[in-house]
Amino acid sequence: MMTLRTWEYLSGPSAWLFWPAIVTGVVVAGMCAWLSVIVVLKRLAFIGQGVSHAAFGGVGVAAMLGLFASTTATTSVSMGQFAVIAGFCLASALLIGKLSEKSGERATTDHADTAIGVILVGSMALGAVLLHVAQTRRMAAGVSWESVLFGQLLAVTWTDAAIAAGVTAVVSVALVVWRRPLMLTLFDRPVAEALGVRVKVMNLVLLALLAVATVSAMKLAGVVLATAMLTLPGAAALRWSRRMSAVMMLALVIGVMCVLGGVVLSFELDWPPGPAIVLVMVTVYFGARGTGARR
Q1: How many other CB atoms are there within 10 angstroms of residue 38's CB atom?
Q2: What percentage of the chain has pLDDT greater than the value 70?
Q3: In the 8-state DSSP scheme, what is residue 255?
Q4: Distance of alpha carbon 222 from alpha carbon 236, whole angstroms
Q5: Of residues 87 and 100, which shows the higher confidence score?
Q6: Distance of alpha carbon 214 from alpha carbon 164, whole angstroms
Q7: pLDDT at 32
Q8: Helix (H), strand (E), coil (C) string for 202-225
Q9: Whether 184 contacts 248, CB under 8 Å
Q10: Region 183-208: what's the mean pLDDT?
Q11: How many Å apart are CA 295 and CA 158, to the nearest integer?
């Protein structure tokens, strides 16, 4: 139940500061929830973490380009930030995919994990250096370490909400259009290859979807915690059902409710919203482990 303090925030004179974040959170939660089922089933959690941390490198590049020079983000600046960070994440995701495929050909999964680790730490280091340089040159007044790592509720604008809605639409269409080849690749790679499915292409498509979803979730949950939104809803849903359609719907409900619950906690207890959302997701996951059997 929505309590008094939350109601005051959402109906008072400063409500316009919070509603864009809530709308964005619900939209992003739905998108990430669907992808999280695939991430868990295909065991891509570590790859997802690598892609999400690559966003930090993208923030550094955007800062050096002057896209964080102002504390007030216009529509063009917000879209520029998204384009640069998404481009960096996409390039990192495709590089991870290529390195993983090469490692797979040699049947050495340890090398794939190493490649992901290299991209992860390399992107974080590059982002840290570039962001430091940008701040030294007074080119990054509109960004802070804390907001990049853990998200910033008040930084979310209606432009961000519109971008998130657009990305969600693209991801949803992609999942519907490529549903059959993705499912075949996910559950039975040899059969998929025998039926002519381009498995490597499908893997790269999935990584690209993870990249744009990560950037959409970044302002809400931050670089560090975006991985949780791409893992925990699906992991919890898979504890309660074995039917794919039911799992997708459960993941959607879990993702959206956890975002709303985290936002309420942040209002009531004055917690940072990103970590609050993730803590709710973690609680739901452990609740699912305790009440549902692994399917």
Answers
A1: 20
A2: 90
A3: H
A4: 21
A5: 87
A6: 11
A7: 92
A8: HHHHHHHHHHHHHHHHHHHHHHHH
A9: no
A10: 83
A11: 40
How far is the C-alpha of 272 from the C-alpha of 263, rounded, in Å? 9
**Amino acid code (one letter) for 189:** R
Domains and CATH numbers, the chain: 4-291 (1.10.3470.10)
Encoded amino acid at 17, one letter: L
What pLDDT shows up at residue 97? Answer: 76
For residue 97, the SS3 value is helix
115: its two tokens? 């490649």
Write down the residue that tokens 């864009």 correspond to. Answer: 20
Place of tokens 């190493």: 114
Closest by CA to 157, choosing from 22, 27, 274, is 22
Torsion of CA 25, 31, 32, 36, to 10 degrees: 150
Cα(247)–Cα(16) distance, rounded to whole angstroms?
34
SS3 13: coil
- Under 8 Å CB-to-CB from 205, ≥6 apart: which residues? 174, 178, 182
This prediction has a pTM of 0.84
Q: Residue 28, SS3?
A: helix
pLDDT in tens, 222-245: 887 788 899 999 999 999 988 888
